[in-house]
Write the structure tokens for this entry.
Amino acid sequence: MLKNLPRKKILLTVLSTLVSLCLALVGVWRNGQEPLLPNGGVLSRAEAIDGVTLTGWAEAGPGLWSFSFTAGDGDETLALCTNYKARLISGGSETEAEDLYLLPASGRAPVRLLLESDGQPSCWVTTAGRALENQHQRQMIQLQAIACFGMMALFVLALFYFKHQRELGYFLLYLSVMIVWAGLIYRFPSEGGASFRLLFMFLFSCMLLSAFWVAAALTGLLTIERRQRLAALFLTALFALFTLSSVTLLRVGALFAGMLACQGLLLYALWKEIEGAELLLFGCAVSTGLRVLVILPGLRWPIFIESLPFYILRCARIYDLPFALGCMFFVCRRFAQQFDRTEQLARELDRRVAQRTQALAEQVEARESMMLNIFHDLRSPLFAVANGLETLSIAPEALPGLLPALQERVSFLRRLTEDLFLAAKLEQNQILLNEDRVLLNEQTALVCTACMAEAKKKGVSLTSETGRPLLVWGDAVRLQQVVQNLVTNAIYYTPAGGSVEVACRAEGGQALVSVRDTGCGIPPEEQAAVFQRYFHTSAANKHESTGLGLTIAQELVRLHHGVIQLESEVGRGSCFTVRLDLLEPDE
């Protein structure tokens, strides 16, 4: 997938560029299919109804342009429409609207026009009824565009109310500018006085900058931390565009530069692999292609003569809708993804809560089971001690025979309470290690010497290999306790006549102490639970242990940043291996 990523970027870049070019070329081609009326031509009735573009204006003087044609059959009053400010000097009576002039024509009467304009006029002739229909159609399209921008603004405002995000604020600002821009054009279709001109220039500048700004904000390329610098840049660009928009040609150039800047920014976002950038890019590409058709009439090139239908669409200001819709899709996509992530997090949280609840239930159950076992083990020796004391109260002479049993029971109670106390402290992380350099082999030898009597009493052969020096970092007393728990556990589970072997060695930069016995072994299904608290194997030959020795040993080894490994086979015995990091002699 990563190998195809550059190819995908190139494909999207080419497609977005082709979208803009194809829309512009198709628009130019379709515009060229509309009927033209040359200077001195004859206007047919069908052309008058559909609307025809006047071409070939002759310059009659400085700022004066003349045109003549012959009206065809019919008694309809003709209307002359202009797309730039011009003043009709002859040819008919002027109406209140500066871009619509009524031309009385009947039969084959010739019509001569003289217009005052700063450049070659762009004019169309149609019937008066059709001209009013065109005006109504233009106003309806403008209202629809305003309604679309307004609905999107309400939606974004609702999102911004519940989720204060700066990106939504920039998008809301852009939509507000577009609503005011389109509303101003709808209310004042023709250019008015100086105040209107200034307002028009200001909104034009805001429209260009807000489109760039919202694209940068939605893609995350707008650095919010540099607000002062960005505000100064915004005001500078606004003033520059405000100045440039005073001249038609410069305004056209600014519009073209703004389109390229916005599309270039989105192409950069696409190559930066910003999610959803393609939605903004293709919306901008469609708007760019439509805006090219808006720019061409302002250039007044002879190769492009704007037709009446294109003039109506251009005045409707719908060319910004695709980009606004792309921004809307981008915002909806982002919120949908956030909602999906929230649902995933909720499901993950529910799953973890269920797992934690189950673990707590199992832990509570295990503790209850452990407490029952502890109470059972406490009750048995206490019952034996109570019976022995009762016997002694009746027959004091039985003391020599009862004393060893009573001592053994009391010793078991002492071991059990000490192990429970130590296990509780380990669980609460209350064990502090008195760490220093420790020769693990020497501590192992001391433990084996101390356990020799217990092994002989059980009839078990205890051998040790502790000649190899193993220098580790740890608590000597706790390490002795680890080895002692493993050795005594091996002795307890090894029947009489068996053997327990303790070996110290170094391997891979680690110190290893292995305790191998020839006892009953541990079934595979129980090996994962041997280090759990109060675990007793299901083997037939059990002994009275506290069930906490291996748990304590594992926790102490973990505090020393080591591990205990187990190898066992039923009927052949088990081997517990302690692994600790080995120190160099000079460390």
